[in-house]
Amino acid sequence: TVRMASDPRVLASNLEKGEHVIERGRQMQARHPALFKDVRGRGLLLGFELSFDAGPVVTRCRERGMLCNLAGERTVRIAPPYVVSREELDEGLRILEESVVALAPPPSQV
After folding, report:
1. Adjacent-strand bridge partners of 47
2. Mean pLDDT of 87-109
3. pTM, rounded to two decimals
4. Which is deepest, 3, 6, 59, 99, by most CB within 10 Å?
5. C-alpha span between 2 and 71 (Å, rounded)
6. C-alpha closest to that of 32 among 51, 17, 13, 14
7. Do residues 75 and 54 touch, judged by C-beta distance below 8 A?
């Protein structure tokens, strides 16, 4: 509800969860710099820019239980609910990273 969305405690929690996701995303970027070009967002609206078409990654993530969508041709957007736990965020990021790595084109084509 609107009341929940404007509660300072909820807002602080969302910012903290978003910072956690960005930190984890930057770790993924460090592990796979040729695949993850950027990690950005604020609160629980976040984007992962890839070096290749993100459409198949979104499809694979959905097949594995992670809800996400496209924000342009190369960006996977996530917008988890306010009640998401850190463990659920970590599971979603694991699914995202595994999907990106599995679907990445050969290094010569990235």
Report:
1. 40, 77
2. 94
3. 0.92
4. 99
5. 25
6. 51
7. yes
